[in-house]
Each structure stands twice: as structure tokens, then as C-alpha cells.
Amino acid sequence: MSFWEYANPRKFMATSAMLLPWVATLAALCLITGLIWGFFFTPDDFRQGSTVKIIYLHVPAALMAINAWLMMLVTSLIWVIRRHHVSALAAKAAAPVGMVFTLIALFTGAVWGQPMWGTWWEWDPRLTSFLILFLFYLGYMALWEAIENPDSAADLTSVLCLVGSVFAIISRYALVFWNQGLHQGATLSLDAEQNISDVFWYPLLVCIAGFVLLFVALVLYRTQTEIRVRRLKALIAQERMA
Amino acid sequence: MIGLFKRDLALAVRAGGGFGLGLAFFLIVTVLVPFGVGPNTGILSTIAPGILWLGALLACLLSLDRVFQLDWEDGSLDLLATSPLPLENVAAIKALAHWVTTGLPLVVAAPILGVLLNLPGPGYGWLMASLALGTPALSAIGTFGAALTVGLKRGGLLLSLLVLPLYVPTLIFGALVVTRGAAGLDATTPLALLAGITLATIATLPFAAAAALRVNLR
């Protein structure tokens, strides 16, 4: 039993079909519990008032926006190195999901920033790098759409993803150099003893789990769709040949 | 290699449209800016560094789709791929030729346009230095983008969408050098970082461009 068995589309389809309902249900459960708990059963912050509650959407979405790109980077590398089609299709499937998470993070940030900072938008390094991440997602998806041959498309988008990752990181640190930030520091870090007060922390954890599961479920579902599209095209081509 | 370089230069100069076009575009963008923001020299001199860098960047972008497109259409790119010269070298030479025909004229012309925008006195040296060090990176990144989109029929717009986010770090450091220089501050730190980006892109991106070309020529 090796991880690479899932490179076989049949095996992937069977396993993902089995997993998908569970992951989706769990994601829905986590999101409902986390959001209701977060929105209605946590106290208001003494300075931010009730606006603090947007954290339950903002932080998980931002976290997953970056992790989606990371996942695309890994699956692109797997495609480049081992040429498993499922991997390339998973990268393709993850891009729109990641883009939507980026948008959610930007939008909730703007909604929070308006009452708190007094502005919808600020050219702060964190905000700006998310905007650039959004542009990277757009370019990546546009390149997938533009190329007809699926293998060339997978190859070229993988190269773009690899180069883009390096430039995204450089941009992130260049932006710190460019403008001092208004955005607070990292909300979550593994080495901090206590990141935020426990009252906010537990529902946030549930929300993060919900977003991770939601991402996994959406990517599995979209990858299945991509594989089916690929099979359908192959069948149509066969029909035409016969 | 030298033959290819000479051929690209000769094509750019003689075929018309390629060589002077970027420069003319740079001039027009710079001239249009005062119409947009008003003739106030104070405002113009504060935004001059950014405008000059943006103009140079857009002028570079404009000529990118010519890097491989013509060779792709008439088949000489296939010949280059089958020649003993590695495709990585082809990509590097193409980037160099693009820089000599687009980036270098921009470096020379930038101070004159700086006068139009009322760039403060100490900024001119930094402007030339930052453009001379930064535009090679623009050419190298752009060549990579051109290699990605060479097989597409209408790749021009997609090329801009792919390349512009990659230009962000170069633009930040380049404009920062000039802004600091124009304010009379020391700008060696961003200049060093800009040079670092240029060197890294020249060293690595020809490989990525060659990989993309191989896929497109398959």
C-alpha cells in the first residue's frame, strides 16, 4: 500500500468517492458549530466590540488561501517529477478554490478594516501581498484555460506555479521593505504560548478545521469532475475514431 | 551564440517597429501623466520616480510578445531547438537581445524624461543606475513569460497578466532607489537588493524559459 497508488485515476476515484461524503459532512458540521459558536456565544472584545467576530471567517480563509497555493506547488512538483495526471488535475482543481478563499480574506478584511482602521483598503504589506496572490491565481487559471493540449497546459502551469511561488515570496518581503504595515502581526504562531484568549481560540480552531475540510472536500470533488471531463473527452475521441 | 545575438539585433533594427517603439511608448506615457495629474511641478517631482519606472516597465512589456513569436511563426525556433546550441542559451541570448533593444535605450532616455517630470537633482544618477541594473531583470522575467505563451494565438494579453505580478519586486526596489535618491537619502540598500534580483533572474529564469519552450515545441 503506497501513497502513489492514488496516481491511478480509478483508485483515486474509488477512494475519493468513499471519502467525499464524510469529509463534506464533517466540514459542514465544523463550520456550522464554529461559526455559530463564534458569532453568538463569544463575548465582544473590549476594544473592537463585535467586529472581532469576523476573525472566524478572515483567519481561516487567509490561512487556506496560502495553503491552497502551497498544495498547488506540491502537486505541480509531483506532476513535473513523476507525471501523474491526477496530481496535475488536483492542482487545476485547487486554483479557483484558493482564489475564492483569497477573495474572502480580502473582503472580510475590508469589512473589518472600515470601522477599525477607518479605511476599506490600506497599502499594507500583508494586504498588498494578498492582492498579488490573487493576481497569481488569476494568471494561473487563465493559462490553464488558454492552452488546448491538456499535457502542455499541465506542464506550463506547473512551471508558472514554481516560478510564481518564488516571486510571491520575494514580493512578500519586498513589500515589507516598501511600506510599514498597519496589519497586526500573526494571529496564530506555533511557538507562542497563548495566541489569543481561550474564549476566542476554541471556536477559531473549529472554524479552521472546518475551512481545511471544506477545502479538501471541494478539491476532491473538483478533481473528480476534472477526471470525468478527461474521460468524457477520451470517449468522444474514441467514438469519432471508430 | 554571437551569431544569434547579431541576428536578433539586426532583425529588431531593420524589421522596423520593434526598436523605436518601446522608446516612443515610454515618451508618450511620460508625457500623458501631467495631463492626468495636472501640471503642478511639486506633485510631478514626487511621483516622477514611480512614473518613470512604470513607464519603463510597460515599454518593456510592450515588446515582449516579439521575443519568440516571429521565430515561432516562421519556424526558426524549431531550427534553434534542433541546433547544437542549448535552448537555455537561446533563451538567455533572446533576453539579452531584448534588453539591448528595449532596456538600454530606456536607460539612456530616462534622464531626459526625468527633466520633463521635474525629477529632483540628486535623483538622476540613481535613476540611471537603477534602470541599468533593473531592466535586465524585466527582460529575463519577460522572456520567461513569452516562452510560456509562445504557442498561443492571442497570447499578448495573457502575457501581461502572467508577467506583471512577477514584476512586483523589481518595480518596488527600482522605484524605491529613485525615490530615496531624489530625496537625497542613501539608496545603496535597495540598489543592492535590485541587483540581487537581477542576477538571480538572469541566472535561473533562462532554465525555466527553456523548459517552457520545450513543452511548446513538443
Q: What characteristics describe this protein?
A:
heterodimer; A: 242 residues; mainly alpha; Four Helix Bundle (Hemerythrin (Met), subunit A); 6 helices; globular; B: 83% helix; elongated
List the helices and strands and how they pair.
The complex is a heterodimer of chains A (242) and B (218).
Chain A: H1 9-40, H2 55-82, H3 85-117, H4 125-146, H5 150-178, H6 198-241
Chain B: H1 2-14, H2 19-37, H3 41-62, H4 66-74, H5 76-82, H6 87-116, H7 123-148, H8 156-166, H9 168-182, H10 188-217
Helix pairs in contact in B: 1-6, 2-3, 2-6, 3-6, 3-7, 3-9, 6-7, 6-10, 7-8, 7-9, 7-10, 9-10
Please characterize this protein's 3D structure.
The complex is a heterodimer of chains A (242) and B (218). Chain A has 242 residues and is mainly alpha-helical. Chain A has one domain: Four Helix Bundle (Hemerythrin (Met), subunit A) (Up-down Bundle). Helix content of chain A is 78%, strand content 0%. Chain A is built from six helices and no strands. In chain A, helix 1 packs antiparallel against helix 6, helix 2 runs antiparallel to helix 3 and helix 3 packs antiparallel against helix 6. Chain A is globular. Chain B is mainly alpha-helical and 218 residues long. Chain B has one domain. Chain B contains ten helices and no strands. In chain B, helix 3 runs antiparallel to helix 6. The radius of gyration of chain B is 18 Å and the shape is elongated. In chain B, 53% of the residues are buried. At the A-B interface, helix 4 and helix 5 of A face helix 8, helix 9 and helix 10 of B. Chain A: It is found in: Cell inner membrane; Membrane. Chain A: This is Heme exporter protein C. Chain A: Belongs to the CcmC/CycZ/HelC family. Chain A: GO terms for molecular function: heme binding; heme transmembrane transporter activity.
